[in-house]
Amino acid sequence: MSVVDRLPGGVTAAAGFAADGVACGIKRAAGVRDLGLLVSEVECTAAAVFTTNRIQAAPVRLSRRHVACGRAQALFVNSGNANACAGAGGEADALAMAELAAQRLGLATERILVASTGMIGQRLPMEKIRRGLAELQPSRAGGGAFAEAIVTTDSMPKEFAVRVALGRREAGIGGAAKGSGMIHPNMATMLSFLTTDAAVPAPLLQDMLRTAVDRSFHAITVDGDTSTNDSVFLLANGRSGAPPLVAGSPEALAFQEGLDEVCKHLAKAIARDGEGSTKLIEVQVRGALDDMQARLVARTVAGSSLVKAAVYGSDPNWGRIACAAGYSGAEVDFERMDVAVGAMALVRGGEILAFDRHAAAEALRGPDVLITLDLHLGAGTGMAWGCDLTERYVEINAEYTT
Questions:
Q1: Fewest CB within 10 angstroms: 91, 187, 221, 255, which?
Q2: What is the mean pLDDT of the chain?
């Protein structure tokens, strides 16, 4: 077995986790799952990363308080209603969600994390949530139902899991995510729920999650908007039997690799599923002054509306790529820059190459589009993922509340 191997499933792939999702009537469409519960059979160390938007939904504020102690055992989540900007009533609803789940599971309220996604500015239908909670039957087989329950405008549920070798033992890392629109670096309208049966001290777990998020969910963009609700949670219950991880150890490095793999897969799935999108854009940058600047260039290029529109039209307009790199805020020098789409070089050392425009357009026609830049300024490397910008994106968001 390699250090990281694919494992079937999502949030329940790791030992000791159970989940379920039901339709409780929050969403308009009948029979569509909109309420999910994820629980560990034992208390977990917990970590989370939340939105940087200054306007934060009630569930974000509540979960931020609950996870501060580094312990949790369950996650209760709804879709179809964001419980954001709903005043004191929204705060009460978020707390009620935690209290209801705690009563159902026989846990302390502080050990419940909550999350919501959907329309902003509406109170939660708590009676529907109360009835739905009674119908939830978490099991090891319920990860898929949970993944379905958290989506909004997504075209499909998103889940992924891996197995990592930790010395002589193995551990699972799994996750589910939702996100399709309002996606931009520093996360956005996305939720991700991650689980592992590894034993990880809370401070180390938080550090590892931040590292993984910076390499994944902070490197995706769909439309440049960031949201009130985005959250990434990670629960570690230690049921694998492997010794607790120690920072800097080979086992910790292997775990970080696995966690990065899960987060990157889910992040790319969100970018690929961008509202109205037809193509996934991957931007690779090398030769920056440092990794941070490389990531900044990659994110800016992937998020450029002009680049996204050009990719949609299969137009090899390298000028838009260079322009986006130039306003990224990173150090760049066009006279040193290389630009390529797919395997075709368009610019080398600031010199425009004679390239076959038809062949270059073909490189932009498939479902996966690769853009590479070499800045030739240093050793920094970085990546970002985005999607093309289509008429359908406007249609979806023009009709979101109607």
A1: 91
A2: 91
- Among 189, 195, 226, 390, the active-site one is 189
Q: Show the beta-strand stretches assigned E in 224-335.
A: 231-236, 280-288
Contacts of 300 (CB under 8 A, 6+ apart): 324, 325, 327, 328, 329, 330
Q: pTM for this structure?
A: 0.85
Residues 229 and 302 in one domain: no
3-state secondary structure of 321: helix
Q: Which of 262, 37, 287 is nearest to 158 (CA)?
A: 262
Best CA proximity match to 20, nearest among 151, 117, 149:
149
Q: Which of 232, 250, 272 is the last residue of a domain?
A: 272
| 52, 81: one domain | yes
**Could you please report the per-residue DSSP string of 345-400?**
EEEETTEEP---HHHHHHHTTSSEEEEEEE--SSSEEEEEEEE---HHHHHHHHST
Q: Are strands 280-288 and 368-374 parallel, antiparallel or unpaired?
A: parallel
CA of residue 208 relative to chain centroid, distance = 15
- Residue 338 belongs to what domain range? 280-398
For residue range 233-292, list pLDDT tens digits in order: 999 999 999 999 999 999 999 999 999 999 999 998 888 876 667 889 999 999 999 999
Domain count, the chain: 2
Q: State the residue for tokens 């949530």.
A: 129
Q: Which of 237, 272, 307 is the last residue of a domain?
A: 272
Say whether both 69 and 139 belong to one domain: yes
CATH number of residue 89's parent domain: 3.60.70.12
CATH of the domain at 382: 3.10.20.340
Q: Are 45 and 34 in contact (CB under 8 A)?
A: no
Is residue 372 flagged as an active site residue?
no
pLDDT in tens, 293-313: 999 999 999 989 999 999 999
Q: In terms of domains, do 349 and 287 share one?
A: yes
